[in-house]
Automatic annotation (TrEMBL):
Native organism: Actinidia rufa
Keyword Isomerase found: no
Main location: membrane
RNA-binding is among the record's keywords: no
Protein name: Sphingomyelin synthetase family protein
Membrane topology reported for the UniProt record: Multi-pass membrane protein
Record GO terms (molecular function): ceramide cholinephosphotransferase activity; sphingomyelin synthase activity
Length: 438
């Protein structure tokens, strides 16, 4: 009769549950508790701090037992480089957002109707056909940009429980590097052709830009914006032939070495003291920005979750991505094309950056090298029916595939681990602060 294995001690049982699905439970709990703000504010105020405290305590308690700090140290430099690249990409994107909003002036935003969007038509038709409860679920603000960022942070921290392959900084470097590439491609895309917003009132509510177009638009766009004869003549001559009687110039504050940005940002007399403060007050663009930045974040989070963790929780994450996409269209933050393009761009970009993380092949190659070295001994032990020797040799192969742990400077390693946890939590707080308005 086969004997059952002895029960594991409770710390091992908890760790096994976290490996087996605890991360998915924590993700669902986080989304559910945060949604309570729309259902019961008192319960939300009680449960959210308790959940954050529990997650933080569990993560910090695992730090002393984490066995892959050497791998984290090797990934620290790529992580910092990826973060700086992403910040530079976000700065370029912010400049581009302001330019496409300001260059044509407020009158263009007020008078240009939204583009026809069949995705919006479909959702309006479904509102008439689907049960009211289902429509309310589709309308519910279940998940937003900061939720997807937090889900990725939970995924990266789960390396402490061996739920995700180490190093966590390597996973973070891949996420930020991919995000930076996606943001650069997005800015280049939407700045190439200026599309009207699905919310025509947006620019008037958010910006204090001039009502008239910039002098570049006065010369190259306005004379040929609507008249078919003028457009035909422009194509024939391939030259801006209309003469502008008098350009309307913008205020020009003194930004020193950054004066070249004035033509791109078009500051008003009330907001011209600093180009940086002007960008901070923007709070998002008021044109259609092809493709959706919100959806890019959502898709990258779902791709990272699927590859690193997998399981049933990945399906839930992808359902939340789809829910977020239809809400972006339903609430007219984006056109359907923006969300569709963001989905396949995010998937393709994540697939292209697999060289950064995970480092699975190195471990496999080390095991194969070790197996090749002991192959003759392993065959001989099998012929001799020496199972003890076979187990010892296989154990050598398994240990040979693991990364070597350094114990030369434990004090420096503890300092690094503390700095890593502190800086990562700081990044989380900054991300929440900077994305609270979308």
């Amino acid at each position: 009769m086969k004997r059952s294995p002895p029960p594991r001690p409770w710390p091992a049982a908890i760790l096994a549950s976290l490996r087996g699905g605890g991360l998915g439970v924590a993700a669902v709990a986080y989304i559910g508790v945060d949604y309570l703000r729309h259902l019961s504010q008192p319960w939300h105020e009680r449960l959210q701090p308790a959940l954050w405290a529990a997650l933080a305590i569990v993560a910090v308690a695992r730090v002393p037992f984490y066995r892959h700090w050497d791998a984290e140290v090797r990934s620290a430099l790529p992580f910092v480089a990826a973060m700086l690249f992403m910040l530079a990409a976000l700065l370029f994107e912010a400049l581009s957002v302001r330019f496409v909003t300001a260059v044509l002036g407020l009158d263009w935003h007020r008078n240009t109707p939204p583009l026809p969007d069949t995705g919006q038509w479909l959702l309006l038709a479904l509102n008439e056909k689907l049960p009211h409860t289902l429509v309310e679920i589709l309308r519910a603000r279940i998940i937003g940009l900061h939720h997807f960022l937090m889900l990725f942070m939970m995924l990266a921290f789960s390396v402490l429980f061996d739920s995700v392959k180490a190093p966590g900084l390597g996973l973070g470097a891949r996420y930020m590097f991919t995000m930076g590439i996606g943001r650069l491609l997005r800015a280049i895309t939407f700045v190439s052709t200026i599309l009207p917003s699905a919310r025509p009132w947006c620019a008037s509510a958010r910006y204090t830009i001039p009502a008239y177009p910039h002098r570049w638009a006065q010369k190259y766009y306005v004379p040929y914006a609507s008249d078919a004869t003028s457009i035909r003549q422009l194509i024939h001559l391939d030259m801006a032939y209309e003469r502008v009687a008098a350009y309307i110039d913008d205020p020009r504050p003194d930004w020193g070495s950054m004066n070249f940005l004035i033509d791109f940002l078009r500051p008003s007399a009330f907001e011209g003291s600093s180009w940086y403060n002007l960008l901070k007050r923007a709070g998002g663009g008021c044109n259609d920005l092809l493709y959706s930045g919100h959806m890019l974040v959502a898709v990258l989070t779902a791709m990272a979750w699927t590859e690193a963790y997998g399981g049933f929780s990945s399906a839930i994450i992808w359902l939340l991505v789809m829910h977020s996409a239809q809400r972006e269209i339903r609430e007219r933050h984006h056109y359907s094309v923006d969300c569709i393009v963001a989905i396949y761009v995010g998937i393709l970009l994540w697939k292209m950056t697999g060289f950064i993380w995970p480092m699975k092949n190195k471990s496999r190659d080390r095991k194969l090298d070790k197996l090749e070295k002991i192959q003759s001994r392993l065959v001989q032990a099998a012929k001799d029916s020496d199972m003890e020797e076979v187990r010892e040799l296989l154990k050598e192969v398994e240990l040979g595939g693991q990364e070597k742990q350094s114990s030369s400077n434990s004090k420096a390693m503890w300092l690094f681990s503390g700095a890593t946890i502190f800086s990562t939590l700081t990044i989380v707080l900054l991300a929440f602060t900077w994305t609270d308005d979308g």
